[in-house]
Write a structure and sequence with these properties.
By secondary structure, this protein is mainly beta. The chain is built from six helices and 22 strands. Strands 8-9-10-11-12-13-15-18-19-20-21-22 form a twelve-stranded antiparallel beta barrel. The protein has a seven-stranded antiparallel beta sheet with strand order 1-2-3-4-5-6-7. Helix 2 runs parallel beside helix 5. It is elongated, with a radius of gyration of 32 Å.
Length: 487
């Protein structure tokens, strides 16, 4: 009756995108996301309001059919299960409100349901109803001789409807923009998903970078000639063999990323350059400061993500016994974040800010298992609290912000072989998310290898890499180098 099928059919695909954005605590896009008004050539006015990713309101007034008898369609719930999209709501017209529940099969386009389902999604079904044969007119009852009724024409066979396009365009066949509004709904769902998943990615990258460059410093403690077994004095996180109290270091790292969460198929690099200095406050303790700059760029077929910013913090390491040390790191990170997403002819691009406070504690041992062989088992906990601000994109859409808390337990070991001034090593670790974080693999392994080189009695170079194993939809491959010395 309302003829909205062409415009509303594409809403069937919105549920899938939104389902991927749903977290254990369902993120919701704030209300008032905007209203689109279109007036048809016949004067019919169609006003579409997106209330949330699962709520939509359409008001139709004017024109030959709705002047004096406006219609309001409220979609109060939109959900997806497999290829079936379920819509619930009500239709109000001529003082009567009728509820509906409609099920739409996205593979066939067939619509089934109850109540005012035909009014809400009328025309979406691929199978038109067969026209009924007109009844034979009755003989007139007037005194005049009735004329012989003409034989009714045989109804024409309806043409076979075209199969709905799996990925509909953003403009309905009649020129209205109802489909555009639904496209916005799907676009908003996708951008909200991106905002959430990218915030989790930023937290995880801080963990990867922080743990990696801290590990590089710790490995150097045992890398130099004569240091593998002596443990007679602690020389700081940037230790060389020099006896000076001040250590300095510089570190460069890159992570090759593949992110297919929510089917985004994004690839790119995250890069970081860090520098720091520490001071020996005693023969068994060192305190230091560090600062770093990082940049992340990911691109996919319909999405993009950019983030860059600064990190600063403090670290300290304490020799608890000849074979056991404790290291702590605290830091603050701020980034400028840009999200991009396209959907058909629609696009969204916008920038926001992200802040993160993080810390880690690492307990590490050093044990000689054979001449020239050293095992360094370690256990660490990484904690993070971040906030990504809400923002408005290039079209004025409000994109939701997110607050995340992340905690990762890492247990692993590194095996060194001392070959003169060169100490190659291999490492293996298991990471476990202590909180059930939606959008991240909770358990995976990290395998690595590298070499630490003593360049002089007071300087060293450490080069290594690692890769994740066991992540279903993500992959991180890290390469890095640390150059340091003591003066």
């Amino acid at each position: 009756m309302l003829g909205l099928g062409a415009g509303l059919f594409s809403i069937a695909l919105a549920g899938g995108a939104f389902a991927q954005a749903t977290t254990p605590t369902t993120p919701t896009v704030p209300g008032g996301l905007g209203t689109t008004v279109v007036t048809r050539p016949d004067g019919t006015r169609i006003e579409t309001t997106i209330i949330s990713p699962t709520q939509l309101k359409i008001v139709i007034t004017g024109g030959p059919d709705f002047t004096g008898a406006p219609a309001t369609i409220n979609f109060t719930s939109i959900s997806a299960s497999g290829t079936t999209q379920t819509y619930t709501g009500d239709v109000t017209r001529l003082g009567s409100t009728t509820p509906f529940t409609c099920m739409l099969n996205t593979s066939t386009g067939a619509v089934t349901g109850s109540g005012a389902c035909a009014d809400a999604l009328g025309g979406s079904s691929t199978t038109p109803t067969t026209p009924t044969t007109p009844t034979t007119p009755t003989t007139p009852t007037t005194p005049t001789t009735p004329t012989t009724p003409t034989t009714p024409t045989t109804p024409t066979t309806p043409t076979t409807p075209t199969t709905p396009v799996a990925e509909p365009t953003m403009t309905a066949p009649d020129g209205t923009t109802i489909t555009i509004a639904v496209g916005n709904l799907r676009l908003l769902s996708a951008v909200t998903t991106d905002q959430f998943l990218n915030s989790i990615l930023g937290d995880a990258l801080s963990a990867s970078f922080g743990q990696a460059f801290a590990a590089a410093r710790l490995q150097v403690l045992a890398a130099g000639a004569g240091q593998l077994t002596s443990n007679d004095t602690y020389r700081g996180l940037s230790a060389g063999e020099g006896d000076g109290p001040i250590g300095v270091w510089i570190n460069a790292q890159g992570i090759r990323l593949k992110d297919n969460r929510a089917g985004r198929d994004q690839k790119g690099w995250s890069k970081s350059v860090a520098a720091g200095a520490d001071y020996l406050v005693s023969s068994s303790a060192a305190l230091g400061v560090f600062a770093s700059w990082g940049d992340t760029d990911l691109d996919g077929p319909s999405s993009g993500y950019e983030a860059d910013g600064w990190t600063g913090g403090l670290y300290g390491s304490f020799l608890l016994s000849p074979n056991l040390s404790l290291t702590g790191v605290v830091g603050y990170n701020t980034q400028d974040v840009t999200n991009e997403r396209t959907f058909g002819i629609l696009s969204s691009r916008g920038s926001t800010d992200r802040e993160q406070v993080f810390g880690s504690v690492t307990l590490e041992g050093r044990f000689e298992v054979a001449p020239q062989w050293l095992v360094m088992p370690a256990a660490s906990v990484f904690l993070s609290d971040s906030k990504t601000d809400a923002y408005r994109d290039n079209a004025g859409r409000l994109i939701q912000g997110f607050d995340n808390r992340l905690s990762i337990l890492r247990v692993g070991s590194t095996l060194f072989y001392q070959a003169g001034m060169i100490s190659p090593y291999v490492s293996a670790a298991w990471d476990h998310y202590l909180n059930d974080e939606f959008g991240a693999d909770g358990d995976y392994a990290r395998l690595g290898a590298g070499v630490s080189i003593t360049l002089s009695p007071a300087s060293y170079l450490s080069i290594g890499g690692s890769t994740t194993v066991g992540k279903k939809n993500e992959r991180e491959t890290l390469v890095g180098a640390t150059l340091g010395g003591r003066f």
